[in-house]
Design goal:
It contains 6 helices and 12 strands. With 184 residues, the protein is of the alpha/beta class. α1 crosses α2 and α4 runs parallel beside α5. The two termini are 23 Å apart. The relative contact order is 0.16.
């Protein structure tokens, strides 16, 4: 159902993310519908991508230019995210140029949050294995709070969000984060 929600916003976010990625980079890419949109936008790039979801990996399966790396771990039914201690160990042993973080919810006070504890743990490990973190979130998730904290709002180097935030929300986000880039 999420894949059909805010599709235009997620595509705009994905296009903005693609503009921030250089060929030759190593990218750690989260799952979810935004992660799939980003994978589709990066499919023709000469980069290495390590997806944290089988759905994202599948979105890249036809690419002849992307080098695909899959981490080991358990596959969560339904979501098809990759998690567990093997995944965390794998992330600790690798360094990526950028981590493209997606989240179920974000707010200035609670930061980026997730509903599933295993997914949140993987995202925290991913934060540590990347030189730069770009949060890629659609505005419908702003002001919401999930069950488990991923990171503070000022942890990502850049937050890319669609233009669906009202002025007050945008001001709150801009004041509390490092850098915000709006799409369309």
């Amino acid at each position: 159902m999420r894949e059909h929600t805010n599709v235009a916003h997620k595509r705009a976010i994905a296009e903005a993310v693609a503009e921030n990625i250089d060929d030759g980079e190593t990218i750690l890419l989260d799952g979810g519908s935004t992660g799939i949109a980003i994978a589709e936008a990066l499919g023709d790039r000469a980069i290495t991508i390590c997806p944290l979801s089988l759905r994202v990996a599948w979105a890249l399966n036809r690419s002849t230019s992307v080098t695909l790396m899959l981490p080991p771990g358990r596959i969560r039914a339904g979501e098809l995210s990759i998690s567990g201690p093997d995944t965390i160990d794998y992330l600790k042993r690798h360094h990526f140029d950028r981590y493209l973080l997606t989240a179920s919810a974000f707010s200035p006070l609670q930061g980026f949050t997730e509903w599933n504890t295993d997914d949140a743990g993987i995202k925290r490990a991913a934060l540590e294995s990347a030189g730069e973190v770009i949060a890629c979130v659609d505005s419908s998730k702003f002001g919401r709070v999930g069950f488990v904290e991923i990171c503070r709002i000022d942890t990502p180097d850049l937050i890319i969000v669609d233009g669906g935030l009202d002025d007050r929300s945008l001001d709150a986000l801009t004041v509390s984060s490092r850098r915000v880039q709006l799409t369309g």
